[in-house]
Amino acid sequence: MSELPKVENLKGMVNYQEGSIVSRTLLDKKTGSVTLFAFDKGQRLSEHTAPFDAMVYVLEGEAEIKISGKPYRLGEGEMIIMPANEPHAVSAPEKFKMLLVMIKSE
Fold it and tell me: What is the largest CA-CA distance in the chain?
């Protein structure tokens, strides 16, 4: 029998770690994944591409997302879609937490 559903506070499910990026996978299915991240100030994910669309939702702090070389500044409560096969990068001008939802189907 599977575990009963329970209410969680997303911000509290992942903690900052000095000089690091911390991630916690909440769901990982063949059709997609949901992952929480906590970025310490100054941390970044270098430019890369993914074969699927992904949504970034900022839970706390402020993030800079570059998509095809264009920078976007996102604050708490804001989201952006990173299109499949477009180069993107994530950086932390300050500490921030985000939820990444990747959809692995067309």
Answer: 47
